[in-house]
Specification:
Layout lengths: L3 H13 L3 E5 L4 H13 L4 E5 L5 H11 L4 E5 L4 H9 L4 E3 L5 H8 L5 E2 L5 H9 L4 E4 L2 H4 L1 H8 L7 E4 L8 H5 L7 E3 L5 H5 L3 H12 L5
Parallel strand pairs: 1-2, 1-8, 2-3, 3-4, 4-5, 6-7
Bound molecules: 3-phosphoglyceric acid.
Length: 216
Amino acid sequence: MTSGAQKTQDLLGIMTAQPVIPVLKIANVADAVPLARALAAGGLPAVEITLRTPAALDAIRAVAVEVPEAVVGAGTILDARQFDAAAAAGSRFIVSPGFTLQLAAAAANSRVPLLPGAITPGEIMAAAEAGYSILKFFPAAEAGGAAFLKALASPFAGIRFCPTGGIGPANAAHYLALDNVVCVGGSWVAPDTLVAAGKWGEITDLAREAAALKRA
Ligand code: 3PG
Protein backbone atom coordinates (compact mmCIF):
# COMPACT_ATOMS: atom_id res chain seq x y z
CA MET A 1 0.00 0.00 0.00
CA THR A 2 1.24 3.48 -0.84
CA SER A 3 1.77 5.52 2.33
CA GLY A 4 -0.14 8.71 3.05
CA ALA A 5 3.10 10.70 2.99
CA GLN A 6 3.98 9.29 -0.43
CA LYS A 7 0.53 10.12 -1.79
CA THR A 8 0.81 13.68 -0.46
CA GLN A 9 4.16 13.97 -2.25
CA ASP A 10 2.65 12.58 -5.45
CA LEU A 11 -0.23 15.05 -5.26
CA LEU A 12 2.07 17.95 -4.47
CA GLY A 13 4.19 17.03 -7.48
CA ILE A 14 1.16 17.27 -9.75
CA MET A 15 -0.22 20.46 -8.15
CA THR A 16 3.06 22.35 -8.23
CA ALA A 17 4.02 21.40 -11.79
CA GLN A 18 1.53 23.87 -13.28
CA PRO A 19 -0.23 26.95 -11.84
CA VAL A 20 -3.66 26.02 -13.21
CA ILE A 21 -5.45 22.66 -13.28
CA PRO A 22 -8.15 22.66 -15.98
CA VAL A 23 -11.53 21.51 -14.62
CA LEU A 24 -13.30 19.70 -17.46
CA LYS A 25 -16.92 18.72 -17.98
CA ILE A 26 -16.89 16.44 -20.98
CA ALA A 27 -20.17 15.92 -22.81
CA ASN A 28 -18.80 13.84 -25.69
CA VAL A 29 -16.19 11.22 -24.98
CA ALA A 30 -14.66 11.84 -28.42
CA ASP A 31 -13.58 15.31 -27.24
CA ALA A 32 -11.51 14.02 -24.31
CA VAL A 33 -8.36 12.98 -26.13
CA PRO A 34 -7.96 16.04 -28.42
CA LEU A 35 -8.82 18.32 -25.49
CA ALA A 36 -6.23 16.76 -23.18
CA ARG A 37 -3.66 16.91 -25.99
CA ALA A 38 -4.45 20.58 -26.65
CA LEU A 39 -4.11 21.51 -22.97
CA ALA A 40 -0.87 19.54 -22.57
CA ALA A 41 0.54 21.24 -25.68
CA GLY A 42 -0.11 24.59 -23.98
CA GLY A 43 1.69 23.53 -20.81
CA LEU A 44 -1.19 22.11 -18.73
CA PRO A 45 -0.72 18.32 -18.76
CA ALA A 46 -2.69 17.67 -15.56
CA VAL A 47 -6.46 17.87 -16.05
CA GLU A 48 -9.41 17.15 -13.79
CA ILE A 49 -12.30 15.44 -15.57
CA THR A 50 -15.41 15.90 -13.44
CA LEU A 51 -17.93 13.11 -12.93
CA ARG A 52 -20.73 15.46 -13.89
CA THR A 53 -21.51 13.83 -17.22
CA PRO A 54 -22.22 10.23 -18.22
CA ALA A 55 -19.13 10.38 -20.48
CA ALA A 56 -16.71 11.18 -17.65
CA LEU A 57 -15.37 7.72 -16.78
CA ASP A 58 -14.91 6.78 -20.44
CA ALA A 59 -13.19 10.13 -20.98
CA ILE A 60 -10.78 9.43 -18.11
CA ARG A 61 -10.06 5.96 -19.52
CA ALA A 62 -9.42 7.34 -23.01
CA VAL A 63 -7.03 10.05 -21.80
CA ALA A 64 -5.19 7.62 -19.51
CA VAL A 65 -4.56 5.24 -22.41
CA GLU A 66 -4.16 7.58 -25.37
CA VAL A 67 -2.49 10.72 -24.02
CA PRO A 68 0.74 9.70 -22.30
CA GLU A 69 1.82 13.33 -21.92
CA ALA A 70 -1.31 14.07 -19.82
CA VAL A 71 -1.86 13.46 -16.11
CA VAL A 72 -5.53 12.64 -15.88
CA GLY A 73 -7.46 13.16 -12.67
CA ALA A 74 -11.10 12.77 -11.69
CA GLY A 75 -13.20 15.48 -10.07
CA THR A 76 -16.55 15.93 -8.35
CA ILE A 77 -16.09 12.60 -6.57
CA LEU A 78 -18.80 12.44 -3.92
CA ASP A 79 -18.51 8.94 -2.44
CA ALA A 80 -16.43 5.80 -2.13
CA ARG A 81 -18.07 4.09 -5.09
CA GLN A 82 -17.19 6.96 -7.40
CA PHE A 83 -13.66 7.07 -5.95
CA ASP A 84 -13.10 3.41 -6.78
CA ALA A 85 -14.60 3.76 -10.28
CA ALA A 86 -12.43 6.80 -11.03
CA ALA A 87 -9.30 5.06 -9.75
CA ALA A 88 -10.08 1.96 -11.82
CA ALA A 89 -10.52 4.14 -14.92
CA GLY A 90 -6.91 5.29 -14.62
CA SER A 91 -7.14 8.53 -12.62
CA ARG A 92 -3.77 9.63 -11.26
CA PHE A 93 -5.38 11.98 -8.73
CA ILE A 94 -8.90 12.35 -7.40
CA VAL A 95 -10.63 15.55 -6.37
CA SER A 96 -13.69 15.93 -4.16
CA PRO A 97 -15.56 19.12 -3.33
CA GLY A 98 -15.74 17.93 0.29
CA PHE A 99 -14.46 15.37 2.76
CA THR A 100 -16.28 12.42 4.32
CA LEU A 101 -15.16 9.42 6.36
CA GLN A 102 -16.38 7.07 3.62
CA LEU A 103 -14.29 8.87 1.04
CA ALA A 104 -11.28 8.87 3.36
CA ALA A 105 -11.65 5.09 3.80
CA ALA A 106 -11.73 4.53 0.03
CA ALA A 107 -8.70 6.78 -0.42
CA ALA A 108 -6.78 5.00 2.34
CA ASN A 109 -7.18 1.73 0.42
CA SER A 110 -5.92 3.19 -2.84
CA ARG A 111 -2.59 4.29 -4.21
CA VAL A 112 -4.28 7.23 -5.94
CA PRO A 113 -3.96 10.51 -4.00
CA LEU A 114 -7.08 12.40 -2.95
CA LEU A 115 -7.49 16.18 -2.95
CA PRO A 116 -10.46 16.66 -0.62
CA GLY A 117 -12.36 19.91 -0.29
CA ALA A 118 -12.66 21.98 2.88
CA ILE A 119 -13.68 25.56 3.58
CA THR A 120 -14.41 26.12 7.25
CA PRO A 121 -11.88 25.79 10.09
CA GLY A 122 -13.72 22.70 11.37
CA GLU A 123 -13.64 21.03 7.94
CA ILE A 124 -9.95 21.86 7.54
CA MET A 125 -9.18 20.41 10.98
CA ALA A 126 -11.10 17.20 10.22
CA ALA A 127 -9.22 16.73 6.93
CA ALA A 128 -5.90 17.55 8.61
CA GLU A 129 -6.64 15.00 11.36
CA ALA A 130 -7.10 12.38 8.64
CA GLY A 131 -3.67 13.26 7.24
CA TYR A 132 -4.55 15.69 4.46
CA SER A 133 -2.44 18.84 4.12
CA ILE A 134 -3.37 19.82 0.55
CA LEU A 135 -7.03 20.73 0.20
CA LYS A 136 -9.40 21.98 -2.46
CA PHE A 137 -11.18 25.22 -1.58
CA PHE A 138 -14.51 25.30 -3.40
CA PRO A 139 -16.47 27.34 -4.38
CA ALA A 140 -13.62 29.79 -3.91
CA ALA A 141 -15.14 33.06 -5.06
CA GLU A 142 -18.46 32.54 -3.27
CA ALA A 143 -16.81 31.27 -0.09
CA GLY A 144 -14.79 34.44 0.44
CA GLY A 145 -12.14 34.39 -2.26
CA ALA A 146 -8.46 35.19 -1.84
CA ALA A 147 -9.08 37.32 1.27
CA PHE A 148 -10.66 34.33 3.07
CA LEU A 149 -7.80 32.03 2.05
CA LYS A 150 -5.25 34.57 3.23
CA ALA A 151 -6.89 34.62 6.65
CA LEU A 152 -6.52 30.82 6.91
CA ALA A 153 -2.74 30.95 6.45
CA SER A 154 -1.81 31.93 10.00
CA PRO A 155 -3.89 29.40 12.01
CA PHE A 156 -3.38 26.62 9.45
CA ALA A 157 0.31 27.04 8.72
CA GLY A 158 0.79 23.51 7.39
CA ILE A 159 -2.18 23.51 5.02
CA ARG A 160 -2.09 24.49 1.38
CA PHE A 161 -5.01 24.91 -0.98
CA CYS A 162 -6.08 24.54 -4.57
CA PRO A 163 -8.96 27.01 -4.89
CA THR A 164 -11.52 26.50 -7.65
CA GLY A 165 -14.87 28.01 -8.56
CA GLY A 166 -15.21 31.45 -10.07
CA ILE A 167 -11.52 31.75 -10.94
CA GLY A 168 -10.42 33.10 -14.30
CA PRO A 169 -7.74 35.20 -15.97
CA ALA A 170 -8.89 38.35 -14.12
CA ASN A 171 -8.45 36.99 -10.59
CA ALA A 172 -6.19 33.89 -10.79
CA ALA A 173 -3.14 35.99 -9.91
CA HIS A 174 -4.76 37.13 -6.62
CA TYR A 175 -4.95 33.52 -5.48
CA LEU A 176 -1.58 32.45 -6.85
CA ALA A 177 0.09 35.31 -4.95
CA LEU A 178 -0.80 33.62 -1.63
CA ASP A 179 1.79 31.41 0.07
CA ASN A 180 -0.87 28.87 1.06
CA VAL A 181 -2.05 28.33 -2.54
CA VAL A 182 -0.34 25.57 -4.54
CA CYS A 183 -2.30 26.07 -7.74
CA VAL A 184 -5.78 27.10 -8.86
CA GLY A 185 -8.38 25.11 -10.79
CA GLY A 186 -10.82 26.36 -13.35
CA SER A 187 -12.87 25.64 -16.40
CA TRP A 188 -11.99 28.85 -18.23
CA VAL A 189 -9.17 27.21 -20.24
CA ALA A 190 -11.65 24.84 -21.94
CA PRO A 191 -14.81 26.81 -22.75
CA ASP A 192 -17.72 24.64 -23.93
CA THR A 193 -18.05 26.64 -27.14
CA LEU A 194 -14.43 26.01 -28.19
CA VAL A 195 -14.65 22.33 -27.25
CA ALA A 196 -17.90 21.87 -29.18
CA ALA A 197 -16.35 23.57 -32.23
CA GLY A 198 -13.14 21.51 -31.95
CA LYS A 199 -11.03 24.67 -31.78
CA TRP A 200 -8.09 22.88 -30.18
CA GLY A 201 -5.53 25.48 -31.25
CA GLU A 202 -7.44 28.20 -29.41
CA ILE A 203 -7.58 26.00 -26.33
CA THR A 204 -3.81 25.50 -26.53
CA ASP A 205 -3.45 29.31 -26.62
CA LEU A 206 -5.63 29.67 -23.49
CA ALA A 207 -3.60 26.95 -21.78
CA ARG A 208 -0.34 28.67 -22.68
CA GLU A 209 -1.54 31.93 -21.10
CA ALA A 210 -2.67 30.10 -17.96
CA ALA A 211 0.55 28.11 -17.74
CA ALA A 212 2.52 31.37 -17.75
CA LEU A 213 0.78 32.66 -14.58
CA LYS A 214 3.26 33.10 -11.74
CA ARG A 215 2.94 31.83 -8.17
CA ALA A 216 3.97 33.57 -4.94
C1 3PG B 1 -14.86 22.94 -9.83
O1 3PG B 1 -15.48 21.91 -9.65
O2 3PG B 1 -13.69 23.04 -9.46
C2 3PG B 1 -15.56 24.11 -10.40
O3 3PG B 1 -16.81 23.79 -10.86
C3 3PG B 1 -14.80 24.88 -11.41
O4 3PG B 1 -15.37 26.12 -11.35
P1 3PG B 1 -15.38 27.13 -12.57
O5 3PG B 1 -16.23 26.53 -13.63
O6 3PG B 1 -15.98 28.38 -11.97
O7 3PG B 1 -13.96 27.34 -13.01
